[in-house]
Design goal:
The structure holds two protein chains of two kinds. Chain A contains no helices and 29 strands. Chain A is mainly beta. The longest helix of chain B has 20 residues. The chains are: A mainly beta, B alpha/beta. Chains A and B meet through strand 29 of A and helix 7 and helix 8 of B.
């Protein structure tokens, strides 16, 4: 299952790149054969560690020991697999439902995984306990829930689908084992605008999300004790916020230069800086390095989506792969246990 | 020869191009649509000879696409994504290499003046102005590159006008290469195209599952039959068309926008769950394309498939933040019911309405009437007997 390649990346692209660390990402010709890969920045080696059957976005456990990703299940449907960064120790999780929708996200203490399962929009948040192997539903069944992210080890923020068919919209919900409640503390209003893509930092200090409150899609950030602020505020759509590990910055994608690009904003000072953006190509899927000084991302500046990295100034962009595959969904390995 | 004559010859030429299907079924449609006089007697023979001369002239130096039926120099416009424009208007050409471009119709040529610019991925783009004094009609686009040339016979439609009210034909799920009925899929599609040719439609949407399994020879068969259509044809792929990058090699981009007068059409590919996938670049492309038709009188989406758990950024763009007026698709091989009249999402002015047309492989098609008052889907027509 594991194949090793030498990267041409060391000689491609411009600028400098971090000299250590590992980045997991998807690579494939098309969706059917997407596979989780791990790039070692120290030596340029690239390992194919996934199953390679419609693999979904990989996520590192907080200690960096495991990767979790949703992929085709052995018999039918989809399920979560765990694997080490070197491709060893693969575990296939057992689920109560046939279809699991990812990404599977780790709780801050690394003991649980959250994802959804169901049919269509009728999804429930499922939490898998790594030690016991038990899967339990969180949030009850009063509202369909999508896109769960952990706020802390006992609470999840998810997107609830509210309203009758033809009148549905989305709101953020706090989800616990006991039920789901509208996250009125995060939102300016509920039931009016459509929220999506909540994201949190590693310690639950900030919750970022996108909403069409304001006319088009904007990025909002709720900083605990400070309240919620529209941090992107532009006449073009801004979406997919990603909070830096220290909670200082929120990277997000914006169309303000005509194509999809990556920007960053400090949620308190609310000043937006360009990280990678162009009028000619798309840059997307930002992933923070553990120390917050680099951003890995995907760019199709050469015509095919490829893994890139840049410092926060955006002046040192470097291509990290040079293969025929399309790269997607980078995730930087946490630093603590590498 | 007058303008209508030129156009009529090109219409006939497409039928001649499919010799096995014959030419006669499409001729009445041409007469009604373009006001042509009756084609019969010595004049008919003369016109057919002229058409044959056009085909010969267009095919001696190169054929449309390459020998395998794949796109060569010009990626778009092509016979699955043609340009429609008025004399003097511009259209965009996407190519693999810079080339001299010429519009050709029945021996007459009109050189274009492309100004090429680079596109990421080693491609080139040019805006091309159609000569203001050109005769409306169908034109082949010939590209002469440094070492080769190609020509696409059904790529540029120069129109006299874009009427406020018009008809659109919808075909979906042709499944070329399948054996699910007594008649072959090719036979059914051929007759269906003849039936479409007899309608007053301004153009045809063909929304995916063009082939049974995405094989190159199936795409080739599909194109051969598609090119018997006397109307502009706009295609997208479906889940059955996903085999390597065969669709892209055959028709180019997997999502695009075109205008018919004041109305904007966004045609995109759902493949299997391609747009359910927020990971790739397509959600951004669709966001930009949706914004490109924001000022349209009617904004109409056409795709192969819709499921409520598709990629949310695509759904946000199309149905919530900037809702389409109407969304046309197939895949279900049945009509949508009265309970399935819209996408589930709330939007100012009401949720985006949907219309699902049953499969062409089962002989079905549908016409839409579009005008100032709105978009009116017609009844499903069981146009072809498939047993």
């Amino acid at each position: 299952m594991i194949a090793t390649f030498l990267l041409l990346a060391a000689t491609s692209g411009l600028g400098t790149a971090p000299s250590s660390g590992q980045i997991a990402f998807l690579a494939g010709v098309e969706q059917e054969d997407r596979c989780v890969h791990v790039l070692d920045l120290a030596n340029g080696s690239l390992l194919r560690v996934g199953q390679g059957k419609r693999d979904g976005a990989p996520n590192w456990s907080p200690d960096g020991a495991w990767l979790a990703y949703v992929t085709d299940a052995p018999d039918k449907g989809t399920g979560v697999r765990l694997v080490h960064a070197d491709g060893t120790g693969e575990q296939i999780l057992r689920h109560s439902a046939e279809n699991v929708m990812g990404p599977a996200r780790w709780s801050p203490n690394g003991t649980k995984l959250a994802y959804t399962s169901g049919e269509g929009l009728i999804q429930r948040v499922m939490v898998y306990d790594i030690e016991s192997g038990e899967e339990t539903a969180w949030g009850g069944d009063t509202v369909p829930l999508l896109h769960p992210v952990w706020a802390d080890d006992s609470r999840i923020v998810a997107v609830g689908v509210v309203g009758l068919p033809g009148e549905q919209t989305t709101d953020l919900y706090w989800v616990t084992p006991k039920g789901a409640n509208p996250a009125a503390d995060l939102l300016a209003s509920t039931g009016i605008y459509a929220e999506w893509a909540p994201a949190t930092d590693a310690e639950g200090r900030a919750v970022a999300y996108e909403s069409n409150d304001g006319g088009d899609r904007e990025v909002f950030v709720h900083v605990m004790k400070l309240g919620t602020v529209d941090v992107s505020n532009h006449r073009t759509p801004d979406w997919n916020p990603v909070v830096s590990p220290d909670g200082e910055w929120v990277a997000f994608e914006s169309f303000r230069k005509g194509r999809r690009g990556i920007f960053r904003v400090n949620p308190v000072r609310v000043l937006v800086y360009e990280v990678a953006a162009s009028t000619d190509w798309n840059d997307w899927a930002p992933a923070w390095s553990p120390d917050g000084s680099w951003v890995a991302f995907i760019s199709n500046r050469t015509g095919t989506p490829k893994l890139h990295v840049t410092d926060l100034t955006g002046e040192n962009v470097k291509a990290l792969t040079d293969h025929r595959l399309q790269d997607l969904a980078p995730a930087w390995r946490p630093e603590s246990k590498q | 020869m007058n303008a209508r004559g030129v156009f009529r010859f090109l219409k006939v030429s497409n039928n001649v191009g499919l010799c096995s299907a014959g030419v006669s079924p499409a001729i009445p449609a041409m007469q009604s649509r373009w006001g042509a006089t009756a084609l019969h007697g010595p004049r008919f023979v003369l016109e057919v000879l002229c058409v044959c001369a056009f085909i010969f002239a267009a095919s001696t130096s190169a054929c449309a696409r390459d020998a395998a039926g794949l796109l060569d120099i010009v990626i778009t416009p092509n016979d699955g994504m043609p340009a429609m424009a008025l004399p003097g208007a511009e259209f965009e050409v996407l190519a693999t290499a810079p080339a001299a471009l010429v519009l050709e119709a029945n021996g007459a040529t009109h050189a274009l003046l492309p100004e090429w610019s680079d596109v990421p991925g080693g491609r080139m783009r040019a805006r091309c102005a159609i000569p203001a004094d050109i005769t409306p009609g169908l034109y082949a686009l010939r590209a002469r590159g440094a070492d080769r040339e190609d020509v696409n016979l059904r790529s540029v439609y120069v129109r006299e006008a874009f009427p406020e009210s018009y008809t659109v034909a919808h075909i979906t799920d042709t499944h070329i290469g399948s054996n699910r009925n007594t008649r072959t899929s090719e036979d059914i599609f051929t007759e269906l195209i003849q039936k479409v040719n007899a309608t007053p439609a301004a153009f045809v949407l063909v929304t995916g599952d063009l082939t049974e399994s995405g094989e190159p020879e199936q795409f080739k068969q599909f194109i051969d039959i598609l090119n018997t259509c006397t109307l502009p044809t706009f295609v997208c792929s479906g889940n059955h068309d996903r085999k390597e990058l065969n669709y892209e090699r055959t028709f180019g981009p997997d999502s695009y926008v075109f205008w018919f007068g004041k109305d904007g059409y966004l045609v995109f590919d759902t493949k299997d769950f391609y747009v359910a996938d927020d990971l790739g670049s397509q959600a951004a492309d669709i966001q930009l394309q949706r914004r490109a038709i924001k000022g349209a009188r009617w904004s109409i989406g056409a795709s192969h498939r819709y499921e409520a758990d598709m990629g949310m950024h695509t759904q946000l763009a199309l149905f919530i933040d900037d809702p389409l007026d109407w969304f046309i698709f197939g895949h279900w091989h049945r009509e949508n019911t009265a309970q399935e009249k819209s996408v589930p999402w709330n939007a100012p002015g009401g949720a985006t309405r949907i219309t699902v047309t049953p499969a062409a492989i089962n002989g079905a098609m549908r016409l839409f009437e579009i005008g100032p008052a709105g978009i009116v889907p017609g009844e499903v027509q069981k146009a072809v007997e498939v047993k």
